[in-house]
């Protein structure tokens, strides 16, 4: 059962430090904060807000109504500021600047909503920042539309390009924090991470339930659940329509991992999908995989995988059963979930194993980034979950990740790994270190290292 204590503010120390430094400075400066929804951006802003800042949460109302709302908020700081009507953002900024005696930072949350109603707003902010003379207003712009926020500050043609002193992308939390967030032991924490990924709001919602299974039923499988339609909302934050992206995610989550397979299922030329897939990679929802020692761009064996555990869970267990779930028929879906959850967790465990390699000392050595490997081996096809090269390039790490309660199988898995490693074509005469990432602790011996869930979560913080 998850702990009932309040979810604390986790692992944003560097972001807090940078934002606090920005807000302690003078006016006439710009900072940008962006990232996918529910990762704690608004909480982060509110955490650092001071008496020298003014927080405003934008919405989708018309521009004049938004201006009136911000003027009303400003009246809390500047006496009778809302007694006049401001017919443009330019007028509001100029008047507010003139009325201030000390610097004030405007913390504009969900800034893309303001831009949707007032497309000229980025240019007005740019003009204010570039104007000569002392300026008392500073701007912290925040938004969940990753592509729009990137376009405002990273695109060379954008009005605000090159003007931000801080550009912070708020990512999902790293897996190691979920133990503290849910008050769970390592194995249960990894099983929870395989469902919720690293999104703090999902963790916060799940804490109200006695188990991951109970939370999944109420939050995800139930058609009234808060997270039932979450993937569509994520996509609409960044794309004009979600149809094509949702189709791509559905196919990849269903096991179509090669570009040719995806294109064939969609009845589209493969070349027409390169850009949409690249957009999903930029958003952090999809990743490309190539075998160890092969470049993603040039490898003909590149695969596409869902990069987010929650999306992988959704497209494995929710999307294929939408019709049943919309009728309120949950039991058959739960039955499949019970049968296949261990396999789903196993896939996430493999990813965590690879992520942990550069942060661990395995076999007394330090390693570079790890990859999967698949292809023709000596005597037949081979596949390994974890392959990495030592930093001195004299050794190769070959490993397998197993998510099973059968700890007694560790010896058999070690023997199988050793036999298969002898057939690996990429070793090239180098020293080989063998390792198993196992759910249950087991002392392998005979030159095979064992890495536990505790060790993985400890370094992935």
Ends apart, CA distance between termini: 23 Å
Average pLDDT level: 93
Shape summary = elongated
CATH superfamily of the largest domain: Winged helix-like DNA-binding domain superfamily/Winged helix DNA-binding domain
Counting H and I runs of at least 4 residues, what is the number of helices? 20
SSE-based structural type: alpha/beta
Number of strands: 14
Read across the widest sheet, the strand sequence of neighbours is 2-3-4-1-5
- Quote the CATH topology of the largest domain: Arc Repressor Mutant, subunit A
Share of residues in helices: 40-55%
CATH architectural group of the largest domain:
Orthogonal Bundle
Count of all domains: 3
Main beta sheet:
5 strands, parallel
Regions with little confidence, pLDDT below 50 for 5+ residues: 1-7
CATH class of the largest domain: Mainly Alpha
Rg result: 25 Å
**Percent of residues in beta strands:** 15-25%
């Amino acid at each position: 059962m998850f702990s009932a204590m309040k979810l604390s503010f986790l692992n944003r120390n560097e972001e807090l430090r940078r934002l606090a430094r920005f807000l302690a400075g003078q006016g006439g400066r710009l900072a940008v904060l962006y990232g996918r929804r529910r990762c704690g951006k608004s909480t982060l802003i509110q955490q650092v807000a001071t008496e020298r800042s003014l927080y405003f949460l934008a919405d989708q109302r018309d521009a004049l109504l938004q201006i009136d709302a911000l003027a009303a908020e400003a009246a809390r700081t500047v006496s009778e500021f809302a007694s006049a009507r401001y017919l443009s953002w330019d007028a509001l900024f100029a008047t507010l600047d003139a009325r201030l005696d000390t610097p004030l930072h405007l913390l504009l949350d969900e800034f893309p909503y303001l831009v949707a109603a007032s497309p000229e707003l980025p240019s007005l902010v740019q003009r204010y920042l570039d104007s000569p003379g002392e300026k008392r207003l500073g701007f912290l712009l925040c938004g969940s539309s990753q592509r729009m926020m990137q376009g405002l500050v990273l695109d060379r043609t954008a009005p605000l390009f090159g003007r931000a002193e801080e550009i912070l992308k708020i990512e999902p939390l790293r897996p190691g924090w979920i133990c503290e967030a849910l008050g769970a032991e390592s194995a249960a924490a990894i099983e929870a991470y395989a469902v919720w990924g690293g999104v703090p709001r999902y963790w916060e919602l799940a804490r109200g339930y006695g188990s991951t299974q109970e939370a999944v039923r109420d939050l995800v499988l139930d058609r009234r659940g808060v997270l039932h339609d979450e993937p569509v909302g994520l996509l609409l934050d960044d794309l004009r329509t979600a149809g094509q992206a949702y189709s791509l995610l559905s196919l990849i989550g269903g096991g179509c991992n090669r570009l040719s397979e995806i294109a064939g299922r969609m009845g589209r030329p493969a070349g027409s999908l390169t850009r949409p897939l690249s957009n999903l990679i930029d958003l952090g929802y999809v990743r490309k995989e190539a075998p160890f020692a092969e470049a993603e761009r040039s490898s003909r064996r590149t695969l596409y995988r869902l990069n987010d555990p929650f999306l992988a869970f959704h497209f494995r267990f929710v999307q294929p059963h939408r019709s049943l779930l919309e009728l309120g028929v949950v039991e058959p879906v739960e039955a499949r979930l019970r049968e296949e959850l261990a396999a789903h967790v196993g896939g996430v465990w493999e990813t965590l194993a690879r992520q942990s390699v550069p942060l661990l000392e395995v076999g007394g050595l330090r390693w570079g980034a790890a990859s999967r490997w698949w292809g023709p081996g000596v005597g037949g096809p081979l596949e390994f979950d974890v392959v990495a090269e030592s930093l001195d390039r004299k050794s190769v790490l070959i490993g397998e990740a197993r998510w099973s309660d059968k700890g007694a199988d560790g010896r058999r898995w070690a023997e199988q790994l050793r036999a298969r490693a002898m057939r690996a074509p990429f070793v090239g005469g180098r020293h080989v270190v063998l390792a198993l990432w196992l759910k249950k602790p087991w002392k392998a011996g005979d030159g095979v290292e064992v890495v536990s869930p505790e060790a993985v979560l400890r370094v992935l913080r």
